[in-house]
Amino acid sequence: xxxxxxxxxxxxEKRTERFNFLSMLQPGVTISSATVxxxxxxxxxxxxxxxxxxxxxxxxxIVFQKFYGGVPGVVYxxxxxxxTSDSQILQLTGYMAxxxxx
Length: 102
Known about the structure:
The mean pLDDT is about 95. About 0% of the residues lie in helices and about 60% in strands. It is elongated, with a radius of gyration of 14 Å. It has a single domain (about 1-100), classed as Immunoglobulins (Immunoglobulin-like), CATH 2.60.40. The protein is mainly beta. It has strands spanning about 1-5, 10, 15-20, 30-40, 50-60, 60-65, 75-85, 90-100.
């Protein structure tokens, strides 16, 4: 599974992150559906899934997911699972730290 590092984000900033699967797709293969699951990598948050804002969207080889909120000091791991037109299941995990609002 490939890993991404997203920029840290204040709790009140809503940010859309990108999971780019281009290098994992064969020519002509598309992403047909995607989900994003969130867990705590370090720190303490009883409801890490709550940092997702809405459902992921797909544009070409990229899956977009909006994130908002979270607990300052926690590092989250967001795993995007993409199902492809040729029945592959691909995953990318992005890590993001949430910081206090400045």
